[in-house]
Amino acid sequence: MIPALATIVPLTIPSPDQGTWYLGPVPLRGYALAIILGIVVAVWLSERRWVARGGTAGDIQDLAIWAVPFGLVGGRLYHVATDYARYFGEGENPVTALYVWRGGLGVWGAIAFGALGVMIGARLKGIRLLPVLDAIAPTVLVAQAIGRWGNWFNQELFGKPTDLPWALEIDPAHRPVGYLDQTTFHPTFLYEFLWNLAAFALVVWLDRRLRLGHGRVVALYVMAYTAGRGWIEMLRIDDVQLSDVGGLRFNVWTSIVLFVLAAAYFAWSSWRHPGREETVHTDGRVREASHP
């Protein structure tokens, strides 16, 4: 019965035969479309959470004008810095560091610079920083989940070879040296997609139930994301600089350190600032809030 089923339902995930389409002379790249869609959905969800928290409709869209470009620049800088030989090594062309459409956005650089953009925008609009970051943080998980499909279009950042039913087919041109005779690999993009959506649901549920404030939603976001990123990163086989520090990939160490720091902050904030902020504006004005 199972062999018969296998002839009807493929037991692997195919990769796209192309990641770029053309609308006349304009290229439409799957990687860029995934990133853009993730940003749009995150802004929409953040707006709803912010209004429910007591903020003003339209604030998040204004902050996105700062956060999005800052985040894209930060993400690219982090990627290039941690994989510099790909762009500045012998025989490489440094100009390709600007080719964002080929993939390569480091999540921690994007988050750090994106938060800096939010900080600037919030200061200009008279918004308290921690409440707005708490409103935005869970939605970043959704943006990251959707954005991971860009890796599928580019056939990149997949995991070790596997023959599991959900294994991902990778074309020979995209297989790293040492794996040219392998055809199917762990679909780490899919693992992170599912993990991030589950983490989003968990963080939002805990925020509703516990009425978190003072940056604790951000801390939960960091803990939830790094818990998944750590084990998913261990499956990946892409070659990056700083890829083996003490037997662990650099991004695994990053996840461990950030998880511990976020957990420590969550505990400290819970003791030092229990409850949630009464106002989200620096001038102290209060608008009635609903459940986020």
Describe the structure in your own words.
The protein has 292 residues and is mostly helical. It has one domain (27-159, 184-272). Helices cover 58% and strands 5% of the residues. It contains 10 helices and 5 strands. The chain has helices at residues 2-8, 30-53, 59-82, 85-88, 107-125, 129-147, 149-154, 188-210, 216-235, 250-272, and strands spanning 12-13, 20-23, 26-29, 167-169, 184-185. Strands 1-4-5 form a 3-stranded mixed β-sheet, with no helix packed on it. Strands 2-3 form a two-stranded antiparallel ribbon. Helix 8 (188-210) runs antiparallel to helix 9.
Relative strand content? 5-15%
Low-confidence parts? none
Please give the radius of gyration in angstroms.
Answer: 21 Å
Mean pLDDT: 89
Based on secondary structure, the structural category is mainly alpha
Helical percentage: 55-70%
Q: How many domain modules?
A: 1
Shape, principal axes of CA atoms:
globular
Distance between the termini: 48 Å
In short:
This protein has 292 residues and is mainly alpha-helical. It is 58% helix and 5% strand.
Furnish the topology, listing elements before pairings.
Blueprint: H1 2-8, E1 12-13, E2 20-23, E3 26-29, H2 30-53, H3 59-82, H4 85-88, H5 107-125, H6 129-147, H7 149-154, E4 167-169, E5 184-185, H8 188-210, H9 216-235, H10 250-272
Parallel strand pairs: 1-4
Antiparallel strand pairs: 2-3, 4-5
Please name the defining characteristics of this protein:
two-stranded antiparallel ribbon, 58% helix, mainly alpha, single chain, 3-stranded mixed β-sheet, 292 residues, 5 strands, 10 helices
